[in-house]
Amino acid sequence: MLILSVSVNAAIPLTTEEQRWLAKGDPIKVGVAIIPPYLSNKGGGDTVEGMSLDYLKLIEVSLGVEFQYQVFKSYGAMMEAAKQHSIDVVFAASNTEERRDYLDFTQVYSHLANKIFTQKGRYQQAEMSDFTGKQFAVPRGTALVGYIRTNYPGIELVQVDDLGEAFNLLSAGQIEGVGSYASAGYLYSVLEGIDNISIVGSVGYDYHISFASRNDQPLLGVLLEKALSAVSIEQKAEIERRWVQPEDTQRIDKETYVSAIILLGFVLAIAGLLIVVFWNRSLKREVLYRQEIQKEVSFLAYHDELTGAYNRQFLIETLSEYTRLAFSNDRSTCVILLGLDNFSLINEFHGQKIGDYVLRRMSKRLNSRLSGDAVLSRTGGDEFTVLLRQANNQVVLSHLADLLIAEISSPIAYGDQSFSLTATAGISIQTEELSEPLRLLEQADLALHEAKRKNRGGYLFYALEMSDKLQEREQLANALSRALRTEQFYLDFQPQVALDTGEVVGFEALARWQHPDQGNIRPDKFIALAEQEGLIVTLGDRVLRLACEQGREWLDQGLEFQRIAVNVSVKQFIETDYVSKVLNTLEQTGFPPSKLELELTESVFMGDRDLAKETMDKLTRQGICFAIDDFGTGFSSLLYLKELPVSKLKLDQGFIRGITKDHSSLQIVKASLQMGHALSMDVIAEGVETIEEQGLLTDLHCQQAQGYLFSRPLKSQLITADKIAQIERNVRLVTEA
Question: Which of 94, 171, 173, 352 is the most exposed, having the fewest neighbouring CB atoms within 10 Å of its CB?
């Protein structure tokens, strides 16, 4: 009631469809587990209270509904219920690939930093790799379980139903370590009296807490997101003050001191001065330890654990203070939002440990370029924000943005490796009174997205028209997520022909999106969006299944072809279960492995080449073949061509379109063909549109081609034996001409 009394938001705007869904009055079941001391705690009787519950009460008010709460004995039991769709909403969950199979997620509303706990004196500092072959406890059913299994398979995981059990096992020496959020250490060490545990390092995976809803009810997820977005900054601040702030050490220390004095008097009566000295030292150590724990919790409340920079919570509170100050051309609040370009590739190809090192170095470098009154915070996985109070002068801000971008671009050394990154920036300046201070941050974010599209490696200042573009993008992103759960995606197939015989040898599967309102969305638009929204793996899996199902249907109809080519994204290929996914899809659809060709881009081989070879070898042994798509546009080393089981090179259409006019393009095509022939690989040219291009490729002994000259991409139902025969006749006519 304290939170609700701050200010109840006006009813949020709902579409007719959303109002109709709520009006049905179906009960909304919310799953809750006890995650003390902040997210959820036992209240009086059977009630539960905590940060998450305060947010849920506000959401209930905004939506005009009353949730049905179901309290589970453990977090793992709650997540299993969510997986079975026996509850509608999960009160606190981190967004993971596995959970996206059955849940939709809102924006993040809280963060928990996961630490490594051990017995006192066992380690000074530790990393997760130090626990290989040892028992390490984590809460059952949490995202931490999947993270450790994937990244540290040698650790012997002990899954517990609650953290109290884990810390008791650790205190008794029955396990080597515990992975848990820092505030749990405060709870069990200070409040529960387990005094022989300490924090020795970071797990490397933090909880970014969202509300989650079953994904077979997409409107529920949309409603939760709207209601959560409507929570005001004042309400969020009140919730933070109520739950996140550390406990009062003065109260705790006083109680400890009084107890110690009573015991001290008794001991003095028995043993004298020596015992007094011993106990006094022990008491000081206890107080010091508790203060250290609290200091850590207090630090984590406002700092990013990995880099030591301020976190988003501190930025939001400071931004709120700054935007309330008077502004003019001489003094205004400014935000520079820096996004690291393609930082995810470092994590994917070199591991999270190196990625974390790069982020720490970036934070130190940026701080070194800022004046003392500037606030640097890490507000996302690969984003840093600079908050300033200075003159409203775009020239000065441009100079600072250039300086920061240049600092990020300097190489970073790690052992015998060197990494170079680029950065893009969005800049916003307060020019009016803001009822919502976050608007300034949102404007910088809009400018950053626009800069990445138009001026990657540079910066842009916020302009009003960017807001309209962001709204359009967000709507499209939500539509893309819904489309992947329905039947809006289909495939077109572009024939691939043998230039010497004119025979149609195969088809490339091309994803198409038929939006219910906007019609066909361009592939370059929705594929880039899928990459940005983390949906590319789901999209790739859908394309593979549709292609295999269509291939099986053609074979049943008696249609003859050699292969169907399917594009594979980097994120798909590096998944640990990618091989089993492909083989399961082939088995379920009945499509022969020998007729499947997977097209990879050269960026796949920038990472662990041994792992890439192992994956390709497993699939090649089943009869699947591999082609390199857009050959010549990416990877600088060609060692992979002789090391990996690649059977085809696909020349990028950018080279083909220039071969009759541009000498450089012609030489690249010639060299690629010679290389392919020398390695006994087929070479296929894409984007062939003119008879001159086709004639030159034939003279250069290019084996295969595809393009508008032979056929545009076709609907699957149009590909028949007669249509294939017609294409082959046209190819022969073109060749003879």
Answer: 173
